Amino acid sequence: MRLALAGMLALTTLTGSCGRLALPSVGFGPRPATGLEDRIWRVDRNDGSFDEIFAFLSDGTLMIASCGGTWRLSAWRRVDDATLVWDTPEGVVHAEIALQGPEDLALLVDQGGVTDTLTFTSARAPLDCRAS
After folding, report:
1. CA distance 97 to 100
2. Nearest Cα to 95, choosing from 103, 83, 78?
3. pLDDT in tens, 61-75
């Protein structure tokens, strides 16, 4: 009984003390790599330019940086094979994977009831915002 109580207390302490926004659970342990993680993705615009890059790190960190000099680190999770979520100052963003290939990615992003399509290309060095 004491061991069970100690385990429950430890679990409560670990899950309750996290300062991040609560996101849907995706299970314990590392998830298999899907080709999305640990890569730099540039957001492509209709005119062929780009102004943001995304990096979905396998440790659950999402890095978003813009050519304007702003950047943000957020928590992200893969909810299932086709759904991603990440936190922003405005709230949780839900995205459905519409296309995922070796060099291309397209997400249908729901931001407060408005759906946008973000298309990405795998970025490679050298990459310079001034050249876009």
Report:
1. 7
2. 83
3. 999 999 888 899 999
- Report the share of the chain in percent with pLDDT over 70: 71
Instruction: Give 62's strand partners.
Output: 56, 74
What's the Cα-to-Cα distance from 43 to each of 67, 83, 96, rounded to whole Å? 11, 18, 16
Beta bridge partners of 12: none
Residue range 51-68: mean pLDDT, rounded: 94
Distance CA 62, CA 65 (A): 10
CA distance 108 to 5: 44
Q: Which residues contact residue 72 at a Cβ distance below 8 angstroms, ignoring those fewer than 6 apart? A: 63, 64, 65, 88
CB 84 within 8 Å of CB 76: yes
Q: How far apart are CA 51 and CA 67, in angstroms?
A: 5
Q: pTM higher than 0.85 for the full model?
A: no
